[in-house]
Specification:
With about 70 residues, the chain is mostly beta strands. It is about 0% helix and about 60% strand. The chain has a 5-stranded antiparallel β-sheet with strand order 1-2-3-4-5, with no helix packed on it. A hairpin with an 8-residue loop joins strand 2 and strand 3. The protein starts with a strand and ends with a strand. About 10% of the residues are buried.
Length: about 70
């Protein structure tokens, strides 16, 4: 999985971080690395803890919550 988060307000406005990793939804809790990108997050790193809250296989919908920890 690859996902970028762009901050559009506040002290991190214009900064970006990227989440990269294997998001196996069948695993209840999983960790994925955060890769630094731009702005205040340049040369930083961290991780995301993802947890599946609900899965609807009939429609292919899955609700996943993420807690993101980034050091800078």
């Amino acid at each position: 999985m690859s996902m970028s988060f762009v901050f559009v307000d506040g002290p991190n406005n214009g900064s970006c971080i990227s989440l990269l990793g294997n998001n196996r939804w069948i695993v209840p809790v999983r960790k994925m690395p955060i890769v630094s990108d731009t702005g205040v997050f340049l040369l930083t790193g961290g991780y995301a803890i993802a947890q599946t809250h609900q899965a609807d296989f009939k429609f292919g919908d899955i609700i996943v919550g993420c807690n993101v920890i980034v050091g800078y």
